[in-house]
Amino acid sequence: MKQITIALAAIMALAASPAQAFLSSQDETTLLATLNQENLTQGVHYNDIRCSVRNKKCLVKMEIKSEKAGCLIEHMNDVSDLYTESTTRDNQVRMVLSPYAEQALASCVAGLL
């Protein structure tokens, strides 16, 4: 419970900070769709992702078994620290979390389960 309280306090601080984002709303939508399509963890649904250049963090909001939660991915200098982008055969843009971001998010989610 203490970890969740600390995590929520950090999330609220990041969400309240007026800072320039380095992820466009279109990129957020595409990345969230990919996260939810490739999600192998039962009961986890990703709802929102916000990144701050000033704070060098990304906040990933989600629902875990119908409980709201969030995870911070820290030390993000630019989008390459968060994801890589490729084009599929049918010219669809596909975003994949970077190994660093994937590990940080998986570790956080595992701690919340």
TrEMBL record:
Q: What are the record keywords, sorted?
A: Signal
Quick check: keyword Signal in the entry?
yes
- Secretion signal: which residues? 1-21
- Organism superkingdom: Bacteria
Q: What is this protein called?
A: UrcA family protein
Q: Which organism is it from?
A: Bdellovibrio bacteriovorus str. Tiberius
